[in-house]
């Protein structure tokens, strides 16, 4: 017989925590090696069951998207996930023309205000 003996776990929602039995299967699938540095996780050493493709970047909350990450690689993986999300969001905003309008520097011509010599602040007129 080929294939899986148990069905693949799929989280009901993106927030559904991974059950311990699934973490065990993921650990065995990766032979106890960190998916990032490929170092074998030693007994008693902390590790995390992480999404290979982060949920925030379009990954799914399912067993085939899970891997193990050692505590040394966890900050790097999280930073890489956030960097990817930021890059995608910037590209999407630029493509859709959703860039935020920048506020002009206070006191510049673009601000529309000017300060007179006596300290009074007034609206700039078009002929200033």
Model description:
The longest helix is centred in the middle third of the chain and has 23 residues, at 74-96. The radius of gyration is 26 Å and the shape is elongated. The protein has a domain at 20-96: DNA Binding (I), subunit A (Orthogonal Bundle), CATH 1.10.30. The chain is α+β, with helices and mostly antiparallel strands and 128 residues long. The protein has helices at 20-29, 74-96; strands spanning 47-51, 66-70, 113-115, 121-123. A hairpin with a 5-residue loop joins strand 3 (113-115) and strand 4. The protein contains 2 helices and 4 strands; from the N terminus they run H-E-E-H-E-E. The model has no long low-confidence stretch (mean pLDDT 89). The strands form 2 sheets. A two-stranded antiparallel sheet has the order 1-2.
Topology:
Elements: H1 20-29, E1 47-51, E2 66-70, H2 74-96, E3 113-115, E4 121-123
Antiparallel strand pairs: 1-2, 3-4
Number of discrete helical segments: 2
Number of strands: 4
- How does the helix and strand content classify structurally? alpha+beta
Please write the string of helix (H) and strand (E) elements.
HEEHEE
* Radius of gyration, taken over Cα atoms and rounded to an integer in Å: 26 Å
Taking the alpha carbons of the first and last residues, their distance comes to 85 Å
Helical percentage: 25-40%
- Globally, the shape reads elongated
Which regions have little confidence, pLDDT < 50, spanning 5+ residues?
none
- CATH architecture assignment name of the domain at 20-96: Orthogonal Bundle
Largest beta-sheet characterization:
2 strands, antiparallel
Mean pLDDT: 89
CATH fold-level label of the domain at 20-96: DNA Binding (I), subunit A
> Could you name the CATH class of the domain at 20-96?
Mainly Alpha
Note the beta-strand portion.
5-15%
């Amino acid at each position: 017989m080929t294939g899986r003996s148990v069905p693949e776990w799929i989280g009901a929602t993106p927030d559904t925590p991974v059950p311990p039995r699934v973490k065990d299967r993921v650990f065995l699938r990766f032979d106890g090696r960190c998916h990032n540095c490929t170092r074998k996780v030693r007994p008693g050493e902390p590790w995390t069951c992480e999404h290979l493709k982060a949920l925030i970047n379009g990954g799914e909350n399912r067993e085939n998207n899970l891997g193990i990450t050692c505590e040394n690689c966890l900050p790097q993986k999280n930073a890489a996930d956030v960097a990817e999300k930021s890059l995608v969001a910037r590209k999407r905003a630029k493509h859709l023309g959703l860039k935020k309008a920048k506020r002009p520097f206070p006191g510049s011509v673009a601000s529309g205000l000017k300060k007179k010599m006596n300290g009074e602040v007034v609206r700039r007129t078009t002929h200033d």
